[in-house]
Amino acid sequence: MIEKAIANTRGKNYSAVWVVIDLDLNPAMAEAEQYRQLTEDLAYAERNKINVAYSADAFELWFRLHYENVTGFLGREQLYEDLSQRWTVNYDPDGKAQAFAQSIPQLISEDDAANQENAIACAKNQHQAVQHLPLSEQGAVTTVYQLVAALLESAR
Protein backbone atom coordinates (compact mmCIF):
# COMPACT_ATOMS: atom_id res chain seq x y z
CA MET A 1 0.00 0.00 0.00
CA ILE A 2 2.78 2.42 0.87
CA GLU A 3 4.61 1.60 -2.38
CA LYS A 4 1.42 2.29 -4.35
CA ALA A 5 0.89 5.57 -2.52
CA ILE A 6 4.44 6.64 -3.31
CA ALA A 7 4.09 5.65 -6.96
CA ASN A 8 0.71 7.38 -7.30
CA THR A 9 2.03 10.65 -5.87
CA ARG A 10 5.17 11.00 -7.99
CA GLY A 11 5.08 14.28 -9.86
CA LYS A 12 1.84 15.34 -8.18
CA ASN A 13 1.25 17.96 -5.54
CA TYR A 14 -1.04 16.69 -2.80
CA SER A 15 -1.41 18.43 0.54
CA ALA A 16 -1.45 15.02 2.23
CA VAL A 17 -1.45 11.36 1.30
CA TRP A 18 -2.75 8.73 3.70
CA VAL A 19 -2.53 4.96 3.91
CA VAL A 20 -4.60 2.97 6.40
CA ILE A 21 -3.06 -0.16 7.88
CA ASP A 22 -4.95 -2.64 10.02
CA LEU A 23 -2.52 -5.00 11.72
CA ASP A 24 -4.52 -8.12 12.49
CA LEU A 25 -1.97 -10.34 14.14
CA ASN A 26 -1.63 -13.65 12.34
CA PRO A 27 -1.14 -16.47 14.85
CA ALA A 28 0.72 -18.49 12.19
CA MET A 29 3.48 -15.86 12.14
CA ALA A 30 5.79 -14.66 14.89
CA GLU A 31 4.18 -11.66 16.59
CA ALA A 32 7.54 -9.91 16.99
CA GLU A 33 8.15 -10.18 13.24
CA GLN A 34 4.75 -8.67 12.45
CA TYR A 35 5.41 -5.69 14.72
CA ARG A 36 8.93 -5.32 13.32
CA GLN A 37 7.51 -5.17 9.80
CA LEU A 38 4.90 -2.58 10.79
CA THR A 39 7.58 -0.48 12.48
CA GLU A 40 9.67 -0.60 9.32
CA ASP A 41 6.64 0.24 7.17
CA LEU A 42 5.80 3.26 9.31
CA ALA A 43 9.38 4.55 9.10
CA TYR A 44 9.44 4.01 5.33
CA ALA A 45 6.17 5.87 4.91
CA GLU A 46 7.42 8.77 7.01
CA ARG A 47 10.63 9.02 4.97
CA ASN A 48 8.47 9.26 1.85
CA LYS A 49 6.01 11.78 3.33
CA ILE A 50 3.12 9.31 3.43
CA ASN A 51 0.86 9.59 6.45
CA VAL A 52 -0.26 6.31 7.99
CA ALA A 53 -3.31 5.70 10.13
CA TYR A 54 -2.89 2.31 11.74
CA SER A 55 -4.65 0.05 14.18
CA ALA A 56 -3.05 -2.81 16.06
CA ASP A 57 -4.41 -5.43 16.76
CA ALA A 58 -7.93 -4.56 15.58
CA PHE A 59 -9.37 -1.70 13.54
CA GLU A 60 -12.63 -2.28 15.40
CA LEU A 61 -11.12 -0.47 18.39
CA TRP A 62 -11.73 2.76 16.46
CA PHE A 63 -15.43 1.95 16.15
CA ARG A 64 -15.69 0.97 19.82
CA LEU A 65 -14.15 4.27 20.96
CA HIS A 66 -17.18 6.06 19.52
CA TYR A 67 -19.18 4.61 22.41
CA GLU A 68 -16.82 4.70 25.36
CA ASN A 69 -13.20 4.85 26.29
CA VAL A 70 -11.31 1.58 26.38
CA THR A 71 -8.57 1.72 28.97
CA GLY A 72 -7.39 -1.88 29.00
CA PHE A 73 -6.67 -4.35 26.26
CA LEU A 74 -9.73 -5.58 24.41
CA GLY A 75 -9.08 -8.49 22.13
CA ARG A 76 -10.53 -8.72 18.67
CA GLU A 77 -13.14 -11.25 19.79
CA GLN A 78 -14.36 -8.93 22.56
CA LEU A 79 -14.60 -6.03 20.12
CA TYR A 80 -16.53 -8.19 17.64
CA GLU A 81 -18.94 -9.27 20.36
CA ASP A 82 -19.50 -5.71 21.55
CA LEU A 83 -20.09 -4.36 18.04
CA SER A 84 -22.38 -7.28 17.23
CA GLN A 85 -24.59 -6.34 20.16
CA ARG A 86 -24.53 -2.60 19.47
CA TRP A 87 -25.27 -2.97 15.77
CA THR A 88 -27.47 -6.08 15.88
CA VAL A 89 -25.28 -7.98 13.47
CA ASN A 90 -22.97 -10.96 13.66
CA TYR A 91 -19.91 -8.77 13.22
CA ASP A 92 -17.65 -11.62 12.27
CA PRO A 93 -18.29 -12.38 9.41
CA ASP A 94 -21.42 -10.34 8.50
CA GLY A 95 -20.11 -7.06 9.86
CA LYS A 96 -17.04 -7.38 7.68
CA ALA A 97 -19.01 -7.80 4.48
CA GLN A 98 -18.39 -4.92 2.08
CA ALA A 99 -21.98 -3.66 2.07
CA PHE A 100 -22.14 -3.53 5.87
CA ALA A 101 -18.64 -2.06 6.17
CA GLN A 102 -19.64 0.76 3.83
CA SER A 103 -22.65 1.49 6.03
CA ILE A 104 -20.65 1.85 9.26
CA PRO A 105 -19.98 5.62 9.00
CA GLN A 106 -23.69 6.30 8.56
CA LEU A 107 -24.59 3.81 11.28
CA ILE A 108 -22.29 5.60 13.73
CA SER A 109 -23.42 9.08 12.70
CA GLU A 110 -27.07 8.16 13.24
CA ASP A 111 -26.47 6.48 16.60
CA ASP A 112 -27.11 8.88 19.49
CA ALA A 113 -24.89 6.72 21.70
CA ALA A 114 -21.89 7.20 19.38
CA ASN A 115 -19.68 10.28 19.51
CA GLN A 116 -16.95 10.94 16.96
CA GLU A 117 -15.32 13.72 19.00
CA ASN A 118 -15.11 11.36 21.95
CA ALA A 119 -13.55 8.67 19.75
CA ILE A 120 -10.93 11.13 18.52
CA ALA A 121 -10.12 12.30 22.06
CA CYS A 122 -9.96 8.78 23.50
CA ALA A 123 -7.82 7.40 20.67
CA LYS A 124 -5.49 10.40 20.86
CA ASN A 125 -5.07 10.07 24.64
CA GLN A 126 -4.42 6.33 24.37
CA HIS A 127 -1.90 6.78 21.57
CA GLN A 128 -0.05 9.62 23.28
CA ALA A 129 0.21 7.57 26.47
CA VAL A 130 1.99 4.68 24.71
CA GLN A 131 3.65 6.13 21.62
CA HIS A 132 7.05 6.18 23.35
CA LEU A 133 6.88 2.39 23.62
CA PRO A 134 7.75 -0.09 20.87
CA LEU A 135 4.65 -1.04 18.87
CA SER A 136 4.71 -4.53 20.30
CA GLU A 137 4.27 -3.08 23.81
CA GLN A 138 1.57 -0.52 23.04
CA GLY A 139 -1.37 -2.89 23.38
CA ALA A 140 -4.54 -2.13 21.44
CA VAL A 141 -3.97 1.23 19.75
CA THR A 142 -5.27 3.18 16.80
CA THR A 143 -4.09 6.32 15.06
CA VAL A 144 -7.14 6.51 12.80
CA TYR A 145 -8.07 9.59 14.83
CA GLN A 146 -5.28 11.48 13.06
CA LEU A 147 -6.78 10.79 9.63
CA VAL A 148 -10.32 11.60 10.75
CA ALA A 149 -9.18 14.85 12.41
CA ALA A 150 -7.29 15.82 9.23
CA LEU A 151 -10.37 15.10 7.09
CA LEU A 152 -12.59 17.11 9.41
CA GLU A 153 -10.12 20.00 9.35
CA SER A 154 -9.91 20.00 5.55
CA ALA A 155 -13.71 20.01 5.31
CA ARG A 156 -13.90 23.27 7.28
Mean pLDDT: 93
Weakly predicted, low-confidence segments: none
Tell me the count of domains: 1
How large is the count of helical segments? 7
How many individual β-strands? 3
**Class by helix and strand content?**
mainly alpha
- CA radius of gyration: 16 Å
Can you summarize the main beta sheet? 3 strands, mixed
**Strand-residue proportion:** 5-15%
Strand order of the largest sheet: 1-2-3
* Order of helix and strand elements from N to C terminus: HEHEHHHHEH
Helical content, roughly?
40-55%
How far the N terminus sits from the C terminus, by CA atoms, comes to: 28 Å
Principal-axes shape call: globular
Short description:
The protein contains seven helices and three strands; from the N terminus they run αβαβααααβα. It has helices at residues 2-9, 31-47, 60-64, 76-87, 98-109, 116-130, 144-155; strands spanning 18-23, 51-56, 141-142.
List the defining traits of the structure above:
mainly alpha; three-stranded mixed sheet; single chain; 156 residues; RloB
Question: What does it look like?
Answer:
This is RloB. It comes from Neolewinella antarctica. InterPro entries: RloB. Pfam families: RloB (PF13707). By secondary structure, this protein is mostly helical. The chain has one domain (2-80, 114-155). The protein is 52% helix and 9% strand. It contains 7 helices and 3 strands, in the order αβαβααααβα. The protein has a 3-stranded mixed beta sheet. Helix 6 (116-130) packs across helix 7 (144-155). The radius of gyration is 16 Å and the shape is globular. The two termini are 28 Å apart. The mean pLDDT is 93.
